[in-house]
Amino acid sequence: MISFNLTAAIRGGAALAAFIPATVSAAPAPVTMAAAAAPAAAVSSRAADARSVADLDAAIKASSIVYKGKLYPALKTPSSGAAHKSSSAAASQNASCPIGSTIAFDQGAAIDLEGGNHKPTNQTWGPDEEVYSPPNPDYVIQSFGRTVSTAGGTYNAGTSQMPPNYSFTNSINYSTATNDLHNYVLSLNIPDVVKANLNTTINNTFSNYQSYAQTLGASAGTVKHHAQVWGTGVFNTSQGHSWYHGYIGGTLICAPAYLHDQALLEAGMKAWVNAVVSRLPRRLEESAKTSL
Fold first, then answer.
1. 198, 204, 264: which is closest to 60 by C-alpha?
2. Of 226 and 5, the one with more pLDDT
3. Alpha carbon 161 to chain centroid distance?
4. Residue 100 and residue 191: Cα distance in Å, rounded?
5. Which of 214, 211, 177, 85 is nearest to 137 (CA)?
6. pLDDT tens, 242-262?
7. Quick one: which of 134, 98, 60 has its CA closest to 258?
C-alpha cells in the first residue's frame, strides 16, 4: 500500500514555488474614456483661453489710443463744459479730447498801448491787463511765451500764470475707482480669463492716468499779460513817445474732465469696458455660459 503524507507534500510544494519566478503580472486597470479625454480637454481649454486673450487684446487696441508708448482707453465722456449741463445732446457734442492731443495758439491776450507825444515822464498809459484762457475747458496751457511785436520808449510788460481751478492729484481716489471697475467686470457674462485680463488692463490704465495727470501739474489754467508805458518827456527830441504791442502764444494740451472728476472717470471706463466686450466674438459669450 502506498502511503501519502499530505503535510510533507504541501511543504514541498511551497518550497518549490519559492524557486519558481512569477511570470504572470497583475492585469492593468482598464482606462476609462474620461481619463483618456482629460489631457485633450486640458489642451483644448488652454487653446480656448489663448484665443480669448487674443480676441480681448484686439478689442482693447481697437478701443484705445497710444500716447508716448502707453495705452489709454478712448473714453467718450462729456467735456468739462458739458459735464454740468442737463442736455445730453450738448454733452454728446462736446466729447472729451484724446489724451495727449495738443493745440497751438497765437495772438492771445494781445495788448496795444501808445503813449502821447512829448508827455511828462510821470504820465502813464495803462497798466493794461489781458487774460488768456483756453477756449475749450478740456485743455490747459502746457507752455506759453510772450511775443513783442513792436515797442519803444519807456514801458514795462510781462506775464503771470494761474493754475486751473481744480486739482489733478487730489480729485480722484484711484483705489476706490479700481475696486468699482473690478466689481463691474466680474459681474459681466464673459470667460474668467477675459475678466482677469480686463482687470489687469484697468490697473495699468489707472496707473497711466495718474502719471499723465502728474505731468499736467505744472500747466496753467490762464495766463495774464500786462503792460504799461510812460511819457518820454516834454522836451525829449530823440524819443517823442512810448508804445508797446505784444501778445501771448503757446501750446494747449488735453486735460479731460474725467481726470479730476471721479464720477465721470468711472462712468467713462464702464462704457469703455462695454465697448470692448461688444467687440468680442459671440463664441466667448457661449464659452462663459457653458463654464457656469
1. 198
2. 226
3. 27
4. 33
5. 85
6. 999 999 999 999 999 999 999
7. 98
Indicate the pTM of the whole model: 0.74
Locate 290 and state its grid cell: 457653458
d(CA 232, CA 118): 6
Task: Give yes or no for a contact between 91 and 82, defined as CB atoms under 8 angstroms apart.
Answer: yes
> Is-cis flag, bond preceding 127, omega within 30?
yes
**pLDDT value at 43 more than 60:** no
Pairing status of strand 243-254 against strand 139-152: antiparallel
User: Rounded to whole angstroms, how far apart are CA atoms 209 and 268?
Assistant: 13
Question: Cα separation of 124 and 230, whole Å?
Answer: 4
pLDDT tens across 116-130, in order?
Answer: 999 999 999 999 999
Please identify which residue in the block is written with the cell numbers 459671440. 282
Residue 37, phi then psi, degrees to nearest 5: -80, -15
Whole-number Å distance between alpha carbons of 213 and 57: 25
CB-based contact 82:96 (threshold 8 Å): no
Residues whose CB falls within 8 Å of the CB of residue 118, separated by 6 or more in sequence, listed in order: 231, 232, 233, 234, 235, 236, 240, 241
For residue 257, give every residue at least 6 positions away whose Cβ sits within 8 Å of its Cβ, in sequence order, or none. 77, 78, 79, 80, 83, 96, 137, 138, 264
Q: Which of 247, 267, 245 is nearest to 256 (CA)?
A: 267
Q: Cα 13 from chain centroid?
A: 86
Tell me how far apart the alpha carbons of residues 226 and 236 are, in angstroms, rounded to a whole number: 26
